[in-house]
Design a protein that fits this description.
By secondary structure, the protein is α/β, with parallel strands linked by helices. The protein contains eight helices and ten strands.
Length: 251
């Protein structure tokens, strides 16, 4: 039987906050990536999100980013490898500590936004992130864009990896995500999202925006929690996976 992890970005709010949609989304996914305060989230939001994830028995991951609150972590910042190591170390350590305070273990790390996209294409950035993860805990799982430097650099350090694909984003012919600045970057309908997810899991291929079919490794599928259709996509994708005898489970 085929199996896949279904993950979602979480805890991307601030201040006086209730779980709302995040809590409901957790009913449909198997792992969550929790913002560490640099692009979203704060001390209270992190704690509440971790507590809810533990209660709902979903795997908890850290979602570190560039220090870019105003841009939601989606603007690339020029930082040295040492600086990237330091910001990732700091954020992952914080999430790990919150998990342990409630008797749980941090399960994985997945970079966010521009940090993720930069590392997917830049070997030095990916290496710095992977080194920070290993320094915190060499047993942590490392989520990264399939066929990218995120995966290859983590593997060089003997970290366990999960090749990630996206339910709500389109792909370029080189296997990278279509930049959000382009009009066709987002998938807006559940039908199209399900079709892409099933194609990636069943065939290990995806159709790029130029109609070319490219190879891809689909071990964990991401739904962006801040997306306008996140809850609809999560419900529909989960049911489609069940209908196709594809088991949903974290690593």
């Amino acid at each position: 039987m085929l199996s896949v992890d279904l993950n979602c970005d979480m805890g991307e709010s601030f201040g006086a906050w209730t779980m709302g949609r995040d809590a409901e989304l957790m009913d449909y996914v198997s792992s969550v990536n929790i913002a560490c305060g640099f692009h979203a989230g704060d001390a209270s939001v992190i704690r509440k999100t971790v507590e809810t994830a533990i209660a709902k028995n979903v795997a908890v991951g850290a979602h570190p980013s560039f220090p870019d609150l105003q841009g939601f972590g989606r603007r690339e910042m020029k930082m040295s490898a040492t600086e990237i190591f330091d910001i990732v170390l700091y954020q992952v350590a914080a999430l790990k500590g919150v998990c342990e305070a409630f008797g749980a273990k941090l399960h994985h790390v997945k970079p966010h936004g521009a940090l993720y996209n930069c590392a997917a294409k830049d070997e030095a950035t990916a290496k710095a992130i992977a080194e920070a993860v290993k320094a915190i805990d060499a047993k942590l799982l490392f989520y990264g864009l399939a066929n990218s430097f995120l995966i290859s650099e983590a593997e060089k350090l003997n970290l366990k990896t999960a090749s990630e694909v996206f339910a709500d984003r389109t792909y370029q012919a080189d296997g990278t995500l279509t930049p959000r600045t382009q009009p066709d970057a987002l998938i807006e309908t559940a039908e199209k999202s399900v079709a892409q997810v099933l194609q990636m899991i069943k065939t290990q291929k995806v159709t790029a925006t130029n109609s070319e079919t490219i190879q891809i490794c689909a071990e964990t599928v991401c739904i962006h929690g801040d997306g306008a259709h996140a809850l609809e996509f999560a419900k529909t994708i989960r049911q489609a996976l069940i209908d196709n005898q594809i088991k949903i489970q974290s690593f």
